[in-house]
Design goal:
Blueprint lengths: L5 E3 L8 H16 L7 E4 L1 H9 L8 H16 L12 E7 L9 E5 L5 H9 L2 H18 L5 H15 L9 H19 L7 H15 L3 H10 L7 E7 L10 E6 L11 E6 L3 H6 L5 E2 L1 H6 L1 H18 L3 E8 L2 E9 L4 H13 L5 H6 L6 H4 L3 E2 L7 E4 L1 E4 L2 E7 L2 H9 L4 E5 L7 H6 L2 E4 L7 H9 L3 E3 L4 E4 L4 E4 L2 E4 L3 E5 L4 E4 L4 E2 L5 H13 L3 E5 L3 H9 L5 E5 L1 H5 L4 H9 L3 H25 L4 E5 L12 H13 L4 H17 L11 H6 L1 H20 L5 E6 L5 H22 L5 E7 L2 H5 L1 H5 L4 E4 L1 H9 L3 H7 L1 H7 L15 H15 L4 E4 L7 H9 L4 E4 L4 H17 L6
Parallel strand pairs: 14-15, 15-16, 16-17, 24-25, 24-31, 25-26, 26-27, 27-28, 28-29, 29-30, 30-31
Antiparallel strand pairs: 1-2, 2-5, 3-4, 3-5, 6-7, 6-9, 7-8, 9-10, 11-23, 12-22, 13-17, 14-21, 18-19, 19-20, 21-22
The chain binds phosphoenolpyruvate and magnesium ion.
Length: about 900
């Protein structure tokens, strides 16, 4: 059977994105619901895949099907390719399943040649218009299809203007444009070695091929990598009858959103240009008008558009981003798709749509990309800060950013990768700048509107962006820009505020933003849906308080080593480690006990009524002592300067001690419970501090909920032993204080052996917390510090690893161990509490896995708590809907 590769717009629908690409599927859907879409057809992504799988050949059936569809377009429009009376002109556009704005290629006005241009001129009664279309077509086709450099055409255009003494393109006469067309033909011939094709069918064939080819252009490849879009999808090709927005002052073209993509406010939002063609709006050559003005200029078209926008939103039940063209007063729809939006807008739109009865709460929860929530937790400028605003542009993407000014995407990439904070400053950005945008803290452009490339991309990436700051005069050659009389050079620091559009010279204090009402409501819905608990990893009372603000349900990991590192404690820690006898050790331990008690009391108070999992000391002792190499140098120096014998002896003893404690492989050495077993007094001190603190706060009227966690257990007897000694201390404290408090003792599962023998370990543990950082290290045999810097990026590049397993949980390996441990532990203790406290606890995909294997909670850094609450709810809805939510 012959395979179908070509779909007329009334043969598809919105569900067919895989096959017809997003743009194609939506053009079909709009046609299906009766909106004014110029006739056309879609060549499926399967044809593109076939093309690349078969040595860049079209499928055999393709051309006949294209011809049949073209015949239908001709009959519906009454126009014909190459016709002398009514020539058909088409646009040829790419369109993958997932929108990749500006990444692939488009050709407009295809079908023009020396004859049809004359006819067009006659029909339109406008020679200038016809020749302007023709030269634009040659420019686009020459560049996209025949791979002639864009600049050559641009230069020819400026040369001609210079020669004629013109300032604007609009001053070019039909005669000038005709001359330009001839020049362009010459350029194409010279650069490509081929004549510019005059046959419309030949043009069409070449354009289709070029669109397929654009799937693998460098910027599309980069974009796919950043956005994790599979290479295998391929692009569809949309061939559509041209309508003209440049037929005069009752024609125009624009882009619009059904709600404000920056704030989410329900209002018509967009920009348009009269007497212009599609690319003019986004290219930023002329400054577009806000959509409301269209009401005054072309009321009928405006009303029609407003009606269609409403229809589209009701139909798709989501905010739409659309493109339209008005040809001599008549409105045509050229595209609709789900609109990209900032996190703040996403929240507002989701919450409003639930209120409007358009969607339900579960759908609302699914509408927010958890990683986008980070945007809302971006810093903003401290309102109390004192600073002078240098200039203002458009508030294109919210949040504030500070960094060194750079003027080129390559520099931004280079400096960004070297760990510098940079702000990319450009006249306008293009898809070719994408690698620099990724590495910048924020983007400032001196041109372009709210829908310009920089604005759209920044919003998608959640980076602050100020656009169209026209006072910024950039001189790329000298790598500097001037704002009024201030000169800013590459490397100078500026702050931009994408929420207000302000640009400030120098550094300004930034503060974390507040969670607004929409945020709280949506998360409250997520809480109703989710089954996983969400706790925070917090080591200080401040972090604990922040966790509560973010509505964490407890602390899943309080690492106690950070308390040891504080300046006022380190000497006591060192004294305790270096003491030779129990008596000598008693004093520094006593001091530490007092300090730890204060730490724990403050945290327990902050978390009043909620569980706090306190982990006993984990890192090896030498981490608290001076560095071995430094000590060697110090000893040599003392010798060299003839220091006293006493001083030298003390230093040498310290050196010997550190040498004894230092390890070849500290990650696998004397740490965690091994330390607790071989140096029991430290753990005993910590347990005493925890429970004395708990008793203290009980006396103050608080309700502490304590969970003691023993790290790095690999053998059940380790835990049995430490549990016994821990309980002994707890009961001593209870006796002494005459208070009894409920508590739990549990362990971390961070070694493969612990997971494999989880049933044995569970006999002694009331809870497990999977320490997926160490479990990943020990399962892979990767030392994180070495692997992430040295070879994981290459492994990902080569496809050996899909993702860095320290960021996204390796469900196949590490996940299998977790799943096994969950099942084994529940066999012996069905009510065991199971959590995750490695960094994966704050990563959406990993959270989904935690839900699937039936964990009790995830624990992550306080700022990730909102994200985790949302991701946990999405895991439930996804399971219910059994759909894979793709990006
Ligand atoms: C872990 O290993 O996952 C963990 C939480 O412990 P740490 O990162 O402190 O080793
Ligand atoms: Mg660990």
């Amino acid at each position: 059977m012959r395979k179908k590769y070509v779909y007329f717009f009334d043969e598809g629908n919105a569900e067919m994105r895989d096959l017809l690409g997003g743009k194609g599927a939506n053009l079909c859907e709009m046609t299906r619901i009766g909106l004014p879409v110029p006739p056309g057809f879609v060549i499926s992504t399967e044809a593109c895949i076939h093309y690349f799988e078969n040595g860049k050949k079209f499928p055999e059936e393709l051309w006949d099907q294209v011809m049949a569809a073209l015949a239908r377009v001709e009959s519906e429009t009454g126009k014909k390719f190459g016709d002398e009376e009514r020539p058909l002109l088409v646009s040829v556009r790419s369109g993958a399943k997932v929108s990749m704005p500006g990444m692939m290629d488009t050709v407009l006005n295809l079908g023009l040649n020396d004859e049809t241009v004359e006819t067009l001129s006659r029909i339109a009664g406008n020679q200038r218009f016809a020749y302007d279309c023709y030269r634009r077509f040659m420019q686009m086709f020459g560049n996209v299809v025949m791979e002639v450099k864009k600049d050559l055409f641009e230069h020819a255009l400026s040369d001609l203007k210079d020669k004629k003494g013109y300032k604007y393109d609009t001053e070019l006469t039909p005669v000038d444009l005709r001359e330009l067309v001839d020049t362009f033909k010459g350029i194409v011939k010279k650069e490509s070695g081929q004549e510019f094709p005059s046959q419309p069918l030949k043009q069409l064939e070449m354009a289709i091929r070029a669109v397929f080819e654009s799937w693998y252009n460098p910027r599309a490849i980069t974009y796919r990598k950043i956005n994790e879009i599979p290479e295998t999808l391929g692009t569809a090709v949309n061939v559509q009858t041209m309508v003209f927005g440049n037929m005069g002052e009752n024609s125009g073209t624009g882009v619009a959103f059904t709600r404000d993509p920056s704030t989410g406010e329900k209002k018509l939002y967009g920009e348009y240009l009269l007497n212009a063609q599609g690319e003019d709006v986004v290219a930023g050559i002329r400054t577009p008008q806000p959509l409301e003005k269209l009401k005054d200029e072309l009321l009928e078209a405006y009303d029609k558009l407003a009606g269609i926008m409403d229809t589209l939103e009701q139909h798709y039940e989501d905010m739409q981003d659309l493109e339209f063209t008005i040809e001599e007063g008549k409105l045509y729809m050229l595209q609709t798709r789900v609109g990209k939006r900032t996190a703040a807008a996403a929240l507002k739109i989701a919450v409003d749509m639930v209120e409007e009865g358009l969607i339900d709460k579960k759908t609302a929860v699914m509408r927010i990309d958890p990683s986008q929530l980070d945007q809302l937790l971006h810093p903003c400028i401290d309102p109390n800060a004192d600073f002078q605003v240098l200039t203002k542009g458009l508030n294109a993407s919210p949040g504030a950013a500070m960094g060194k000014v750079v003027f080129h995407a390559d520099t931004a990439e280079e400096m960004g990768k070297a760990g510098e904070m940079v702000i990319l400053v450009r006249w306008e950005t293009t898809p070719d700048d994408i690698h620099g945008l990724v590495q910048s803290q924020g983007i400032l452009t001196s041109h372009g509107g709210m829908t310009s490339h920089a604005a759209v991309v920044a919003r998608g990436m959640g980076k602050p962006c100020v656009c169209g700051a026209e006072e910024v005069k950039i001189d790329y050659a000298s790598k500097s820009c001037r704002v009024k009389d201030v000169v800013i050079r590459e490397g100078d620091i500026i702050t931009i505020d994408g929420t207000t559009g302000r640009v400030i010279l120098g550094e300004v204090p930034l503060i974390p933003p507040m969670i607004n009402e929409d945020f709280r409501r949506l998360l409250a819905w997520a809480d109703e849906i989710r089954k996983l608990g969400v706790r925070a990893n917090a080591d200080t009372p401040e972090d604990a308080a922040r966790s509560r603000d973010f509505e964490a349900e407890g602390i899943g990991l309080c690492r106690t080593e950070h308390m040891f590192m504080a300046e006022d404690r380190l000497p006591h820690v060192q004294a305790a480690i270096l003491a030779k006898t129990d008596e000598e050790r008693a004093e520094p331990l006593q001091k530490l006990l007092k300090m730890q008690k204060e730490d724990f009391a403050a945290i327990l108070k902050a978390m009043n009524g909620l569980p706090v999992t306190i982990r006993l000391l984990d890192p090896p002792l030498h981490e608290f002592l001076p560095n071995l190499g430094d000590l060697r140098v110090e000893v040599a120096e003392l010798k060299h300067r003839g220091a006293s014998l006493e001083e030298l002896a003390a230093k040498e003893e310290l050196l010997a001690n550190v040498r004894t404690l230092s390890e070849a492989n500290p990650m696998l050495g004397l740490r965690g419970c091994r330390l607790g077993i071989t140096r029991p007094d430290i753990y005993q001190m910590q347990v005493r501090a925890i429970f004395e603190a708990a008793c203290d706060v009980v006396e103050e009227g608080y309700e502490p909920v304590v969970e003691v966690m023993i790290p790095l257990v690999g053998i059940d007897k380790e835990l049995a032993l430490l549990k016994e000694s821990t309980e002994k201390v707890i009961h001593q404290v209870f006796e002494e204080r005459g208070i009894r408090i409920g508590y739990k003792i549990g362990t971390m599962i961070e070694l493969p052996r612990a997971a494999l023998t989880a049933d044995e370990i569970a006999k002694h543990a009331e809870f497990f917390s999977f320490g997926t950082n160490d479990l990943t290290q020990t399962t892979f045999g990767f030392s994180r510090d070495d692997a992430e810097g040295k070879f994981i990026p290459e492994y990902v590049e080569l496809g050996i690893l899909e993702k860095n397993p320290f960021e996204v949980l390796d469900t196949e390996g590490v996940g299998k161990l977790i799943d096994m441990a969950v099942k084994l532990s529940r066999q012996v203790r069905p009510d065991i509490k199971l959590g995750v406290c490695g960094e994966h606890g704050g990563e959406p995909k990993s959270i989904k896995f935690c839900h699937q294997v039936g964990l009790t909670y995830v624990s992550c850094s306080p700022f990730r708590v909102p994200l985790a609450r949302l991701a946990a709810a999405q895991a439930v809805v996804e399971e219910e809907r059994e759909v894979f939510i793709d990006k």
